[in-house]
Amino acid sequence: MAKFIIGSAWPYVQTVPHIGNMIGSVLSADVYARYLRMREHEVVFVSGSDMHGTPIEVEAIQLGVDPKEYAMRMHEIVSELFKRWNISFDLYTHTHSETHIGFVRKFFEKIYKNNYIFIQEDELPYCPNDKIFLPDRFIIGKCPYCGYERARGDQCERCGRLLEPRLLVEPKCAICGAKPEWRKTKHWYLDLKRLEEPVKRYVENNSELPQNAREMSLSILREGLRARAITRDNRWGIPAPFPGAEGKTIYVWFEAVLGYISAVKEYFEARGEPEKWEYFWKDPSAKAVFFVGKDNIPFHVIILPALIFASGEGYTTRLTTSSTEYLTYEGDKISKSRRWGIWIDEALKLMPADYWRFVLVYLRPENRDVDFTWATALDIINKIMNDDVGNFVHRVLSFIKSRMKGVVPAPGASTAEDEAFAAKIQELTKKAEEHYERIELKDALATAVELAREGNRYLNLRAPWQAAKERPEEANTIMYNAYWAVRNVAIIMYPVVPASMERLWQMMGLRPPILWREATRRPDPGVALGDVQPLFRRIERAEFESMMEELKRLREEKWSKRYPWEQVIL
């Protein structure tokens, strides 16, 4: 049994996450956390709402509300939506919690005492229209490396390079479009140059990093790390703890990544075990796995390890990042401003959470960008989820229910075909386990589908409906093996579609919890099935067209509202 800290990228609560955010972080983290719990490891799964920074502050000012009120309302909505998506967080918190604020301030005080922070006066972009210093993310312009027209002042989301506002070609204010002025201000900087070697060793020696995270991080390190300002001039944030830093706040990217530590601390404080967070974070054998989109790679693979090394507090450095490529929507990038995509509140008005979970994990962009189309989604639901998996499950359970008095039969003698299928069950179960261990969630789900397809082929080959008439012992062997396959499909798919697999477990006459070790042994005969019902259902063309009309209606109503929390469909 091992210790795992699982974290998903903290969603920024200026708006509700979309389906690309979901598969890139929260849903993928949930699937892996559920798998680890099935393996009976010690797991703490945390995340929270990223509450601070200029985007919230500016929008709150424009709406005439307090930034804290704005952020807290959105946090409550996003938190409720994650529950409806059946995300199994041990704690979903936010960056304005007392624990997080206190932890961040003490953490940076320690780094300051360790001489990794220095003060520097610099000229920073200032918007003369909005009368504020502009954080890096509020400067947009052309990337000097790849030419992308809408690169941000901290990072280009096309090529992934870390940037600074002065590097941008033709920079402008992201709020109003004005050309920024450069004005002097004093800030506190993290001396990343001094941390470059330990970070480089961490990346080079981390064999568990996915290829995109490794390549992007090594490319950044080859260019050399430069000091980055960790304070900002905006008011909505965590006050900087440094002497003379009154009126400054900690840059959200530097404080939010520390949330993986502070959230574990907060979780155990709430359980009345205030010291147990160190049992995870200060055990060198404990492993922390972060689930992020590829645009978050530098902050998780470079910045967070650098902060941990600078603190000298003995946190585990067994860190890895499972980083996905982008999920696009119908051939284009998801965009709130263009209202292009599907947001997680809308999604649940169209289909149950398990249908979305299955489709998104089946499409998970693990090695390349993947395009979500409704045609593909319907094929996955109708042909794969319902026909391949659901049909196999129903064929097996309904046959046992109607022809074998609803009791799992004891197997008789086996033919070569029976032995081959039994071996296939074990082979594919082991293959799925290997995929989960490597965080290849898409492939793990595909392996469950492959097992269901093999089960359907086996039934067609062995024809138990004929054997039951003349050779009942042979039919018993066939249906015992088929039941075994159904059970292992349920175990493999449980992390992906937990509600559906819990229902299937009951139909199979089995008691919770669903544990992975069950997949390594043959089922017990003599189990009485529960009530057998179809597991999934098809979405026909007329129903799909009705769904699209409903989505159109909901959006017309949604975008007519003024406040972001009024726009959310619950």
UniProtKB/TrEMBL annotation:
EC number(s) recorded for this UniProt protein: 6.1.1.10
Chain residues that bind ATP: 336
GO biological process: methionyl-tRNA aminoacylation
Binding site for Zn(2+): 143, 146, 156, 159
GO molecular function term, any single one: methionine-tRNA ligase activity
UniProt entry tagged with the keyword Cytoplasm: yes
Catalytic reaction list: tRNA(Met) + L-methionine + ATP = L-methionyl-tRNA(Met) + AMP + diphosphate
Positions of the Methionyl/Leucyl tRNA synthetase domain: 5-397
Motif ('HIGH' region): 11-21
UniProt keyword terms in alphabetical order: Aminoacyl-tRNA synthetase, ATP-binding, Cytoplasm, Ligase, Metal-binding, Nucleotide-binding, Protein biosynthesis, Zinc
Domain of life: Archaea
Ranges of residues in domain Methionyl-tRNA synthetase anticodon-binding: 408-548
Enzyme class: ligase
Cofactor: Zn(2+)
Cofactor binding mode and count: Binds 1 zinc ion per subunit.
The protein's name in its UniProt record: Methionine--tRNA ligase
Function of the protein: Is required not only for elongation of protein synthesis but also for the initiation of all mRNA translation through initiator tRNA(fMet) aminoacylation.
Major subcellular location class: cytoplasm
Motif segment ('KMSKS' region): 333-337
InterPro entries found in the cross-reference section: Anticodon_Met, Met-tRNA_ligase_1, Met-tRNA_synth, Methionyl/Leucyl_tRNA_Synth, MetRS_core, MetRS_Zn, Rossmann-like_a/b/a_fold, tRNAsynth_Ia_anticodon-bd
GO CC terms in record: aminoacyl-tRNA synthetase multienzyme complex; cytosol
Stored HAMAP family: Met_tRNA_synth_type1 (MF_00098)
Cross-referenced PANTHER family: METHIONINE--TRNA LIGASE, METHIONINE--TRNA LIGASE, CYTOPLASMIC
Localization terms from the record: Cytoplasm
Family: Belongs to the class-I aminoacyl-tRNA synthetase family. MetG type 1 subfamily.
